[in-house]
What we know:
The termini are far apart. The protein has 268 residues and is α+β, with helices and mostly antiparallel strands. It has a domain at 6-22 and 33-192: Mago nashi protein. Mean pLDDT is 84; it is low at 1-14, 18-27 and 245-254. The longest helix has 15 residues, at 194-208. The strands form three sheets. It has an eight-stranded mixed sheet. A two-stranded antiparallel ribbon has the order 1-2. It has a two-stranded antiparallel ribbon with strand order 6-7. The chain has helices spanning 97-110, 152-161, 194-208, 212-225, 228-242, 260-264; strands at residues 6-11, 14-19, 39-45, 55-61, 65-71, 75-76, 83-84, 89-94, 118-120, 129-136, 139-146, 191-192.
Amino acid sequence: MLIAHLRSALVGSSLAVILAACASSTQQPQSEWPPADFRVDVEWTAGGAIDRAATKRFVAEADGLCFYGKSSAPIVDPVSKVALPVYDTMCVYRVRPECVRLLARKLHQRGVQKLDPQQGAVEDLEAASVRLRHRAFASERTVVAAGQVHGVFVRVLHVINAYLPPSESFWLPGMTGDPEPENLADVPAPVTAVAGALSWHEERLRERGDDPALLLDAFALACRLGDRARSEQLLARWEAAEAVSATKEAPFADAPRLLPEMLRRMLP
């Protein structure tokens, strides 16, 4: 079994990421995998009332950095009912190059780029749902699934589940087949710490610049902390980064488009 390790722990109010040894010391040959633009982003949301919906999210990138976060309760705009998850329970770990290579290749082999954009009963608002975004070799695909799912999408979720922390998984009704062998060891369990999670997001923003998705996650955490000044600063940065203007009709199965006035109504 190919094994890669990372430890993550909350130290004070910041999130520390510590690289541990890899059990496999085999020298890996040069490869086009993972492509430099590789990224997979998976978000699972429980069905039912949106203001109480639990959310889980996993992101892996070409450099091996993995993020896993859980939100037990979102913040909600009382007018539009648009909700933002608050990933206050999270862990961060970096996998070895051979492991992220294996992840990228397996997703390709299972057919992630051939998936139809809609899987199962996406119109069923009471059903748990998964939104998967995948990018590789300058090709991007977004897939939304809910209700009973089968075939390629199930195989793709099994691959991703093998890279999650212990006892964590993405699951939808109808998932069958054998799970993928676990590829990682010593992955830390998610830890709940709002201030630490916000500090990690802000550090990531300093490294990457004002990425709109990161800014939204940081905004939600600042709101949960009750820090209005910090929340307003993050909102202003998000507006500039996103350049949001007129309301736009969202495609079927897409979330309503976020507008600044929605986020202002979420401020503490």
